[in-house]
Every structure is written in C-alpha cells, then in structure tokens.
Amino acid sequence: MKSLKILVLIAVALTFANSNLVFADLTPNEIVAQFNGLEGGAGWSFNTTLNATLGNSERLFSTTAGAVNGRTPLLSAYTSGAYGTSPNIAAFYTLCANPDLTIPYNTVTGYAKLNYNAATGATRNVSGDALTVGAAWLYSQYAQGTLAGFRYTSQGNIPGSNRYADAQLLHTTINLLMTGTAAQVNAAASTNKFVQALLQANSSAAYWTGTYNANQRYQEIGDFTVLVMNLTSGPNGTGTQYQDMLYVARAGYGTDPGGVPEPATLMLWTLGSLGVVGLGYCRKRAKQS
Fold first, then answer.
1. Nearest to 229 by CA among 75, 139, 125
2. Ramachandran angles phi, psi of 59, nearest 5°
3. What is residue 118's DSSP assignment?
4. Which pick of 36, 62, 137, 176 has the fewest CB atoms within 10 Å?
5. Higher model confidence: residue 105 or residue 17?
6. Which of helix, strand or coil describes residue 3?
C-alpha cells in the first residue's frame, strides 16, 4: 500500500508539472472574442508609431496605458525577425491591408476590432476585400521573421533602405492578392519575389487568391490564424476610420495530430494510468491473501 501511495504522489506531481509546460491555444473564435471584448467591448486601445525608421506600409503597434487591468491581445501576437519572435511581446509590427486609407504620420492612438465572420471564417477590410490565403501566408511568415527574401535588418528601416523597399513591395503584394485575379498574380511573378515564393510553395495562383478561412488550419500557415484589424480613432468603430492592418495569433484548431496535448488531457492520461496500476495492485494483493 505504501508503494502505491508513493506512485500516486509521483504521478500527480508529474501531471501538474506538465500542465505548467504546455497550454491549449485559443480557437479563432476565442481569440476574436478576447480581442474585441477588451475595454468593455470597445475593442483594443492601441498606439501606432510612424517615424523616420518605419515606412508607411509597416507599423509598430503596442498597447495604450489605458488597457483594462493591463490586458492586451499581444500575448498571442508576433513581431518581425529583427525585433525577435516571441509569443509574449509588448508590441508587434504589422502591414496595411487596405490601400485606400491612411494613418497620420505620427504617433496615433485609437481602437481596433478584428473583422471576423464566425460562420465562414472570412476577415475583410472596410472596403469589403477579403483576406486571401496568399496574403495570410505572407503576413504569417513576415510576422515570424521567416519570410524568404525579406531583408529584415539590411541597411536599417529608413526610406530608400532595403527593408523599406521590401515592406512597400510586400504591402503591394498583399493588396494584389486581396483585389487582383489569379492571372494578374501570375503576371507579377516575373518581377515580384514574394509572388515567386508563393508559387514555389504552390503553383496555383487561384489557390493563393482564394478567400482565407480563419477557422481552418492551412498546412502552409500552421497553427496560426490571421485576421484584419479595423482601426478607428474612437471606441467600437466610432470616429475616424484608419487604414486596416493585419494581426496574427497562435491558434488551436483541434485537428493537428502533432499538437501538444492540453493539461486536461494529460490529467486524464495520468488518472487512467493510475487506474490500471491500481487495479493490478489490487489483484496482486487479492491473490496474496
């Protein structure tokens, strides 16, 4: 009996230790609910910065001081390579998802809400253009610092630099994928390195221009969901409409056979194992008696 108690204590300790090492990613629905529910449902209060080190297509977002209890959606957001790739960052870099609107050339505060149709998983800018699979893939790669051909650090981020030029080209490519045809994407492949990267991964331009479903796990994108942030100067979509930007977060889709098990799953495994061990122990004791 003493040995069984020791075994139980060890198994329980291991279970709680494992539960601190792994976690279940939020589903896209949960990510949107958390994000849009900030500030009492007004949306996420943000700061965005544009200065001499950033191009108009590339922005640095962070939380404002007024975030309720310090809660922000940034625990899931990623930033680009030169600035680190951590799921626990205080700010992140993003790109425009709408060519028709602008954010003023200074530090701007406002509110953001994720555009999301729970039924279809579509996410759109204020012009109604849907995020496409290709645009989502390019941004997810950029945000993780792994986009091939993007010069994250070369010559700094000032106008005329390699990074500035790449950010402009990436912005142009994302808008082409959201508003253009498959034929136009194919035509751009001769001069656009980001389109070339897409077509190397999948030669079908029609695939990349198809509407992205944030509820679906794509092999190319992995365990991430990409969404459009609609930005305004006031809470809950009021005030001046700013340019839409992109947002990426780790997501759990429940369909990845290689995923990390949740703590609850680990607990069930442990309890099941204990039951088998306990049954064997009881049978052994019964035979001895």
1. 125
2. -125, 150
3. T
4. 62
5. 105
6. helix
Q: Are 186 and 180 in contact (CB under 8 A)?
A: no
Q: 153 by DSSP, 3-state: which?
A: coil
Whether 221 and 214 have beta carbons less than 8 Å apart is answered as: no
Q: Is 108 helix (H, G, I), strand (E, B) or coil?
A: strand
Distance between CA atoms of residues 76 and 248, nearest Å: 8
Please give the span between the terminal C-alpha atoms of the chain, in angstroms, as a whole number: 14
As a whole number of angstroms, the distance between CA 28 and CA 185 comes to 28
Residues 186, 210 contacting (CB under 8 angstroms): no
Beta-carbon contacts of 166 under 8 Å, excluding residues fewer than 6 positions away, are 149, 150, 151
**Nearest CA to 193 among 166, 159, 232, 216?**
166
Q: How far is CA 101 from the centre of its chain?
A: 23
Q: What is the DSSP letter of 190?
A: T
Spatial separation of the C-alpha atoms in residues 245 and 95, rounded to whole Å = 6
**How many C-beta atoms lie closer than 10 Å to residue 281's C-beta?**
14
* E-assigned strand segments in the chain: 44-49, 58-63, 91-95, 108-115, 224-232, 245-250
pLDDT of 228 higher than 70: yes
Q: For 105-126, how does the pLDDT look when each residue is reduced to its tens digit (9 = 90+)?
A: 667 888 999 999 999 999 999 9
Residue 80 contacts residue 142 (beta carbons within 8 Å): yes
Output the CA angle 75-78-79, nearest 5 degrees.
130
Two tokens at 221? 């994108």
pLDDT in tens, 162-221: 888 898 899 999 999 999 999 999 999 999 999 999 999 999 999 999 999 999 999 999
Angstrom distance (rounded) from CA 150 to CA 93: 14
Residue with the two structure tokens 């949740």: 262
Q: Which of 55-64, 122-131, 159-168 has the lowest mean pLDDT?
A: 55-64
